[in-house]
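dumping this here before i forget
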Amino acid sequence: MKREVMVMELSGPCRSQLMIMTFVLMNVMVVDYVASHDYGETLSKSILFFEGQRSGELPLSQRMAWRKDSALRDGSDVGGRQHQIQFPNGLLNHHAGKFMGSDLKYALEAIRWVTDYFLKATRVPGVVYVQVGEFYGDHRCWERPEDMDTPRTTYKVRKMKPGSEVSGEIAAPLVASSLGEVSSNVY
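structure:
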């Protein structure tokens, strides 16, 4: 027995209504998907992750009790490895604080941690320290910052060997963090 398949062709108002219904249904599904995620918890865990990456003299407010001071002679490692460069460390506070609840103090502390490092890197007039550590050697080394035994070579830019890109990458978050501090009145 041969079956025939009936194909219905939609046109005119029926087609428009079906398209509108499909569009509405898809939007409802997207809203439901987005509403099912707790972005506050995600942000909280992100801040906690970066707090765990700190090295240097750790503050008393450090929530990772298992972490200890490290790299006390050359600055902090904000990138999760021993090799320290300036480019990936810029961060901008854009009035998101009102949505952060109790994690705002930790976010501001994270901004302050990076800002303090940048201020130390630019302390000498006319010199900007842009990297600490050996790129390839540090990337092959997997150890806790507390156990760091790789060379902590420092690299700098200055008038004779300029680096306007990295200097700008440091200046921008310094300005942004100062605006965040003024608006939050925390520091």
